[in-house]
Amino acid sequence: MDFIDTISMGILVAVVIWILKDFLGRGKAPKLPPVDPKPPIELKDFTLEELKKYNGENGNNIYIGVNGKVYDVTPAAGFYGPGGSYHLFAGRDATRALALASFEEEHLNNPTIDGLTTSDLETLDGWVETYEFKYDHVGFII
């Protein structure tokens, strides 16, 4: 191999490596700057009376009680805030109402699951999973 062939071979190898690096590098997620984790939430106990003020009115956050826990649903104020289709749940225990898919007043602030069917309990479990996944758990109903 003469000098020109050696240079040509070196250039060819460099081009192949560059192409492979470019091809293999695709699909990798871009490196994002590190995100500061949210500070831990100090869980509070709420009576049903205390929970009432967290209904999204007067600048207050929107909390909903479900199955003994309280969730901050303020990020979904369009649904749970004043004028939203689920505002009647705001500042209340919605356990029984969610299990029964009910908007009836008698099912609000009624945390008992006595008398619910297996299907009702499965519905409630689905709501609990949704709240656990989407919203911050901020306390407990006492």
Short note summarizing the structure:
This protein is α/β, with parallel strands linked by helices.
Order of helix and strand elements from N to C terminus: HEHEEHEHHE
Q: Round the Cα radius of gyration to an integer and report it.
A: 28 Å
What is the number of helices?
5
Percent strand equals 5-15%
Classify the oligomer. Answer: single chain
Would you tell me the overall average pLDDT? 87
Distance between the termini: 86 Å
- Give the total of beta strands: 5
Protein architecture, described:
By secondary structure, the protein is α/β, with parallel strands linked by helices. The protein is built from five helices and five strands, in the order αβαββαβααβ. The chain has a five-stranded mixed β-sheet with strand order 1-5-3-2-4. The protein is elongated and about 95 Å long. The model has no long low-confidence stretch (mean pLDDT 87).
SSE inventory with pairings:
Elements: H1 3-25, E1 44-46, H2 48-51, E2 63-66, E3 69-72, H3 77-80, E4 92-93, H4 95-100, H5 118-134, E5 136-141
Parallel strand pairs: 1-5, 2-4
Antiparallel strand pairs: 2-3, 3-5
Labels describing this entry:
142 residues; 38% helix; five-stranded mixed sheet; 5 helices; alpha/beta
